[in-house]
Amino acid sequence: MCELFAMSSRVPATLGFSLERLARHGGAEGPHRDGWGVAFYEGPDCLLLREPRPASESSLMHFTERLGLRTRMALSHIRLATVGDRSLRNTQPFARELGGRMHVFAHNGDLPSLLDRPRPVGPIRPIGDSDSELAFCALLARIAPLWDELPAGQFPPLAARMSVISAYAQELRELGPANFIYADSDALFVHADKRTQLDGCLRSPGLYLLQRCCWRAASELAEAGVILSTVRQDVALVATVPLTDELWEPLREGVLIALSNGLCYGADGKAAPPERVAAGDRAT
Hints:
Number of helices: 6
CATH architecture: 4-Layer Sandwich
Distance between the termini: 25 Å
Oligomer: single chain
Shape: globular
CATH topology: Glutamine Phosphoribosylpyrophosphate, subunit 1, domain 1
Number of domains: 1
Largest sheet: 7 strands, antiparallel
């Protein structure tokens, strides 16, 4: 099965070591050789890089690691193909515009019954033939009414977005493993489910959460004329498997959380400590 990774940060940060460790799993230290992709957000838009080849062997991935792009929100995916051929159109993350913002989605699991349903005929249609992209298009169709006729620069209430995503996640769990990360340029929505573990058994955790808080020098702010010597940095990371030796919190099966500016939010749209949201209520 595939692996997911995402970062939410208060102050723009680089993916650095985490991206390098994830890339190793894409063929060198893991079987995920069928493609990789990463999305770096900048405001409402994102830079999306994808290739249908092993991340560990990709010159573009290695260049991206060295480039050290700074962002407040990013998500990445390395693929082990189960549905759909090995091609760019089936390589995650997938991205679409909605409400003047880029929405990005990555999924880990198998939802083969989605392929038996009629292909979408509305404005949001899949390009490839994977179950993951079908799941993304259906999610956008569900959440699109919240974005209709919103004033420019505004977002639907976080709790309202969480409610729609939670209901949809519950439906996906009935079809198969449904670990996914969805971003709308304001927040990362993380849904944890079961995944195939190293012993071959299908069980939770499907995702892990790590939150860091520190103070660091803010030379880039000083250069911009902001008189501050240090700035607080909050960073939240999500990964299919822990990428460092730190204490990652396993997310309970069926939990839905949101990450924004490095902070964690529960299903009620309120900020909460990571250990509380990790063991929070199932998406209903």
